[in-house]
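Subject: Sanity check before I submit

Could someone independently write out the structure tokens for this chain? I want to compare against mine line by line before I put it in a report. The sequence has 536 residues.
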Amino acid sequence: MGERRGELIATLVVAALMLTGCGGTAPESGAKTVAKPVEQAACKAGPVKGGSLVYARQLATVSLDPIAIRNSNGDIFADGLIYEGLVQYDPSGSSKIVPGIAESWAVSPDGLTYTFKLRSTAKFSNGDPITAEDVKFSLDRFGNPNINQVMGLLTNGYGSSKIVDPSTFVITLTTPVPSFLDNIAIFPAFVVPKKLVEAKGDAFWAQPVGSGPFRVDSFTSGSNLKLSRNDNYWDAGKTYLDSVTFDFASDSNARLLSLVSGHAQMADGMAPSQITTVQSNKDLVLRSHDWPAWFGIFLNQKRPQLADVKVRQAIAAAIDRDTINKQIFGGLGTVSNSLFAKLRYDSDAVAPYTFDLDKAKSLMKESKFPDGFSIKLEYPSGFDYYNQMTLAIKQSLSQIGVNVELVKIDANTMGDNLHAETFDMSFGYPQTSSDVAVPDEYAAFFGVPESNNGFYTSFKDPVIEAAVKTFTTATSETDRVKEWPVIQQMLMDAQPMVNVLNFPLITAQAKNVCGATVNAMGVDMLQHTWLAPVSK
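---
Independent answer below. Compare away.
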């Protein structure tokens, strides 16, 4: 997850996580979709070591404690460079789980016991070896929901851990958790040095010693973060860059100006309106990265109108996503065939959302509110494209008798209202995203009421709940492949949330920035990045 919650549950789960760019006006209708560029000519000579990279980031890093994130991706994306877990998502971008600090692992036939073999070359950034004692300390932090409050849902099934010998570590689950490797591939399960954390307490996180490809040189919460190459990182030959500085700027125009001026070499959160500007600049490259993020409208079913499934289905059918995508987002988005963004096990046999005004009107007539009703929709300030998207949605829903009052509020207040369940309809977070590449997390959020009350919507469906509980404990991959599309369709039919659009991660960079990849969760893999010499 992304961030969100809680019991905080994923406190920013979502959001965990995650904002795309803010500011700017919408692109002209028919703006070009961002193509993933071929390798820049400057990069063809191959990796070189050296150089400093300034990265203009939308979200500031506030906390470097990976189990206590406070600013969603602002913290998560920094943690992904400083720390590493036993396993990780493939740095090349696929959702495959690959070795991290553990060079190999084995799973017992009953799915309850995971045995990890640690790398003999794994060290912390201060040169101390990473021991099984450090791993036990870190994974027990992850597995304790009283400590891991931000991502408490992912601790389900964690039973106990045991050190077999200095390089062998065993985790025993209380129930099969087929997504367990995905769960420990992300930030709350990152490995930290036991002795230093215990000795320094909270002061440790001001300049932590990490297990990842970069080390922390200096950190001022919410202000600046400077990293340098961790020469003790187990993957010899990585990292190429001497240093990386995160330059925080919430305004998308400020980030673009920093890039154009040459102060920064990379920038994230590019607004749709900035795409043409970047593409027309011969010194810049625009990149589109797939990641599981979407614009979703939460529907509070404490409101009797939204408790009516016919009303929820009518709302979903009345939104003209293709037009919104083309006219506001330049065709960059994707109309989903799921309540969520694209995740492992999704089936193309499930039909995507379809704009059908006649069907929407018919559903309203069949509902308990055939004459319509008035309701509020909360959306975040600071994003011009939200102004346009919500106006389009308001206009669409007016055609089925739903009078929408648009309420623009700051993102933090919107999130607080969501968690307090005091909203009618809400986008909840500027953008919602999954923390893992499998649907287990969000399936439980919406399908298992005790996880967080239907992700704050009060949605309950005993058939879906039973199916989700079966899916999230199935040890057979064949069964999971078969079971998920059924749940995917049931959630689409129930519509506890309306997915407006899936949306990619858009970044921009100088043309001599090479190897700038992200993993399946959108986290920058800057250990693979280098700066090619600039020809004079």
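---
OP: Matches mine. For the report I'm noting this point. The CA atoms of residues 314 and 362 lie 8 Å apart.
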